[in-house]
Amino acid sequence: QVQVVESGGGVVQAGESLTLSCTVYGLSFESYAFGWFRQDHGKEREGVACISWSGVWRFYGDAVKGRANISRDNVQKFVYLQIDSLKPEDTAMYYCAIWKYETSLGAWSRAEDYKYWGRGTQVTVSS
């Protein structure tokens, strides 16, 4: 059974940085692209960032471009999302997701193309 686990959320002040972590059990970690999505109350789920299985390709949503860095460690089997200069509008539940096929990636921000999802980790940015 595949289990995706996120961690690292919390309450931070505007302007601070935060790093989220994601790992997976029951899946060949190094063969899949990972994405981060977020959703706040009453808003649509939004693609934040994505990294290919090798880590060569990285993509970012417009809302975090220039402030975020997605990375992965295929030995320790973690994917990280660091966001700097956090804003109150970054407040959301952040979800880690795994692309539907091994060693492939398409339109990274389409949530429906990710097969496995974590339960989310809450990030709250206070002004």
List low-pLDDT spans: none
Largest sheet: 7 strands, mixed
How large is the radius of gyration?
13 Å
What share of residues are in beta strands?
A: over 45%
Question: SSE order in H/E notation?
Answer: EEEEEEEEEEE
Arithmetic mean pLDDT? 97
Word description of this protein:
The chain has 127 residues and is an all-beta fold. The protein has no helices and eleven strands. It has strands at 3-7, 10-13, 18-25, 34-39, 46-51, 58-60, 68-73, 78-83, 92-99, 114-117, 121-126. Strands 2, 4, 5, 6, 9, 10 and 11 form a seven-stranded mixed sheet that branches. It has a four-stranded antiparallel sheet with strand order 1-3-8-7, with no helix packed on it. The mean pLDDT is 97.
List keywords for this structure.
127 residues, 11 strands, mainly beta, globular, 49% strand
